[in-house]
Design goal:
single chain, about 240 residues, mainly alpha, 2 domains, 8 helices, about 80% helix
Length: about 240
C-alpha cells in the first residue's frame, strides 16, 4: 500500500487540497443542519452533507481501484477525476453554479460522459494488457463496456437527483432543492413534457453523446493498433 502511495505524489497534492476544501464544506453543512431553523436551509444542509461524502468517495476511487486490483492508473486520469468531481459536485451542486450559470449543468453532463468513458476505457485496457489476463477483449467489447459503464453511472446520478428532490419535498413542500428542475416551467418549443423530465432526458442525452464520442474514438484507436500488431506479426513470420 505504501508503495502505491509513493506513486501518487503528483496528483496527491491536488487530492489533499480538494479533500481539505470538502471537509470544510462538510463541517459547514453539519453545523447548518444542527443550528438552522428554516426547513429549506436544513434541507440544503442535508443534501450538501451527502454531496460532500460522495465527493470524498469519488476523490479516493482511483487509488482504491489501484490498491484493490493492483493496477497503475495513469496520473492524468487521477487528475481528471479530481478536477471533474470538484467542478461538478463542489462548485456545481454545493455552491449552486448549475442553477446560477446557464449551460453549466449540461456542460458538466457532457464532460461527465467523456470522463467516465475515458476512465472505464483505461481500466479495461490496462487489465487487457495484464499478463494475468487469460483472455483479451476485442476493441469493440472494450468500447461497448466503456459506453455502458458511463451510461450506468449517468443514470445512477439521475436517480440521486430524483431521490434528493423527493426527500426535500417531503421535508418541506416549499423546498428550494430543485436538482431535476421540476419546479421550473418548460419554455422549450421542441419539448412538450414537464421541465423536470426534459431536464433529466437532456442530461442523459448529452452525457451519452460524450461517452459515445470517447467510445468510438477509443474503438478506432484500439482497432488500428490491433491491425498494426497483426501486420507486424505476419511480416515477422515471413
Amino acid at each position: 500500500m505504501f508503495k502505491k502511495i509513493k506513486k501518487l505524489e503528483g496528483p496527491k497534492i491536488l487530492y489533499l487540497i480538494f479533500v481539505g476544501i470538502v471537509f470544510l464544506e462538510l463541517a459547514a453543512s453539519v453545523l447548518t443542519v444542527i443550528f438552522a431553523e428554516e426547513p429549506h436551509v436544513v434541507d440544503a444542509g442535508i443534501s450538501n452533507i451527502f454531496l460532500s461524502l460522495l465527493a470524498l468517495f469519488l476523490f479516493s476511487l482511483p487509488w482504491l481501484i489501484e490498491i484493490r486490483f493492483n493496477v497503475d492508473i495513469p496520473n492524468y486520469i487521477e487528475v481528471l477525476v479530481l478536477i471533474f468531481v470538484f467542478a461538478a459536485i463542489v462548485i456545481g451542486n454545493i455552491h449552486g453554479l448549475v442553477e446560477s450559470l446557464p449551460g453549466y449543468d449540461k456542460l458538466m453532463h457532457i464532460i461527465s460522459g467523456i470522463t467516465i468513458a475515458i476512465i472505464a476505457f483505461e481500466i479495461v485496457h490496462i487489465a487487457n494488457q495484464s499478463e494475468r489476463t487469460s483472455s483479451v477483449l476485442t476493441p469493440a467489447v472494450v468500447s461497448i463496456f466503456a459506453f455502458t459503464f458511463a451510461m450506468t453511472l449517468l443514470v445512477l446520478w439521475e436517480f440521486y437527483e430524483f431521490f434528493i428532490d423527493t426527500i426535500a419535498y417531503n421535508v418541506d413542500p416549499d423546498t428550494l432543492r430543485n436538482m431535476q428542475r421540476y419546479q421550473w416551467e418548460n419554455m422549450r418549443v421542441l419539448f412538450p413534457q414537464d421541465n423536470g423530465l426534459v431536464d433529466t432526458m437532456l442530461d442523459l442525452l448529452v452525457g451519452g453523446a460524450g461517452a459515445a464520442i470517447v467510445s468510438l474514438t477509443g474503438w478506432w484507436i484500439l482497432r488500428n493498433q490491433q491491425i498494426k500488431s497483426i501486420d507486424t506479426m505476419t511480416q515477422s513470420k515471413k
